[in-house]
Design a protein that fits this description.
two-stranded antiparallel ribbon, 9 strands, seven-stranded mixed sheet, alpha/beta
Length: about 300
């Protein structure tokens, strides 16, 4: 049964929110990615500690990295919010940032991963570290068509605006999460296409695997795609260097194929999270520690 239509009050609220979104987007675009990023960074560093997620993030850092002293924890928190401030406004400058390739350091293994994906299809998994919005656009720019998944926003007007801005970077389609999307992605990978998935959030329908020494509910879907369609998994991140300059990272994740399906999915999922942990340990201030990642 379809959901009831939005009420008159909800539709008015959506239009008001969309007007505010358009106004903010116009201002951010006028400032350019560097000035807007500096302002966004300063804004979040000042105001984010007042948010309840600040305490949650601090607790997660202390539990995951218990050897850090108070000064190191404070530095990571400050860097985390600064990075989020920049990433939030850079979402309105994706086309410009990708076009200006001198902002990026691209290693040879990134190009090798693209070569393999073009030949066989692949699953690329990423995490909320650095500027995660740039991961799929960077693959697209370097010649790899991809399909992506996103969480649909409640406001349909703002959702349409955001999808329209990201859509050109997903030549194989950008799909809202759902059962039909899962089937589409299986078909795409089966036809030697490539899909990109953010896989570092808590997924209570998945399996618990170790993450910083603690059980973390994690999505099985990347492992299911790769094992079922016999394609590789690559973990990637676009890490921030300074300001709006970046460094791409990529690593192939082993896909278990022992013949025992459940064991293979569990082992592959755990391998993905281990690689994410490696990325995060190298740059802990660029991962979003405020997410409810563990069973807390």
């Amino acid at each position: 049964m379809p959901p009831p239509p939005f009420s008159l009050a909800e539709r008015a609220q959506f239009r008001l929110e969309a007007a505010g979104f358009d106004l903010g987007a116009g201002l951010i675009r006028a400032l350019g990615p560097d000035r807007a990023g500096a302002i966004g960074s300063a804004f979040w560093r000042r105001l984010a500690p007042l948010n309840k997620r600040h305490k949650r993030a601090e607790g997660h850092i202390r539990a995951a990295l218990p050897a850090l002293d108070d000064e190191e924890v404070a530095r990571i928190l400050n860097e985390m919010w600064a990075n989020l401030g920049r990433t939030s406004v850079e979402a309105f400058h994706l086309e410009q940032l990708i076009r200006e390739q001198d902002r990026f350091t691209i290693p040879s293994d990134f190009h090798e991963a693209i070569r393999v994906a073009k030949a066989r299809g692949a699953v690329f998994v990423s995490l909320h570290q650095g500027n995660w919005e740039l991961a799929s656009p960077l693959l697209h720019y370097h010649g790899l068509p991809v399909a992506g998944v996103y969480q649909k926003l409640r406001n349909p007007i703002v959702d349409a605006r955001a999808t329209e801005a990201r859509g050109p970077f997903y030549a194989l389609g950008l799909y809202a999460k759902g059962n039909e999307t899962a089937r589409r992605l299986l078909r795409i990978v089966g036809e030697r296409g490539t899909v990109t998935i953010m896989a570092d959030l808590r997924d209570l329908s998945g399996v618990s695997v170790p993450f910083f020494g603690q059980p973390a509910p994690s999505t099985l879907f990347p492992a299911l795609l790769a094992r079922g369609r016999d394609v590789p998994i690559f973990a990637g991140a676009v890490l921030r260097r300074e300001g709006a300059t970046f460094e791409a990272k990529v690593a192939e994740v082993p896909v278990a194929r022992s013949g025992d399906r459940e064991t293979d999915l569990m082992e592959t999922t755990a391998a993905i999270q281990r690689q994410f942990e490696t990325f995060i340990r190298a740059r802990p201030g660029q991962w979003m520690w405020g997410h409810r990642r563990w069973k807390r």
